[in-house]
Here is the input.
Amino acid sequence: MKKFNYTMNHKEDEAYMAEMCHKGLAAVSLVEGVWTFEPCRPDQYVYRVGYLRGMRKSEIEAQNRELAAKGITFVSRYSFWAIYRSEQDFQLYAPEEELALCQKIYRPMLPGSILSWIAFLITLWLAVKVSGWFGILSVLLAVYAGICTCLGISYSRLIRRLKEGHI
Here is the structure.
């Protein structure tokens, strides 16, 4: 079964997979917001999402073997994230590691958002002054800038909740 659900951070992905597993659907893959599920017993699995950016293939394979030895199964990879599951509760990161990871991800988001909005304004100006064809690029940049901004807001809220110990 396929379902569309685009979340703004990895903790929301974990919550969505837990919700679906509670309904008897186990996540098996994620591609650009399109989730694939297969039937399972309600609450059969606990899901966690791991960060892979900067890791070599051999490091990822070693990590997957280490986790498999603990009964944690690699499910799927999307972008620079990996989905893991187990029939027992587990954590991939200690709370301070999770906070540091989120801060690392968040750090480039503000400049990226600002630059995308500037690029949008420039192409919008070009669409008005030079050629309407720049309007197509302008729309694409507006969508990109909007997504960047939403991701930044999502991660800033997640960081606040992690600091307050609500996760």
Notes: Residues 96-164 form one domain. The chain has five helices and six strands. The chain has a mean pLDDT of 95. The radius of gyration is 19 Å.
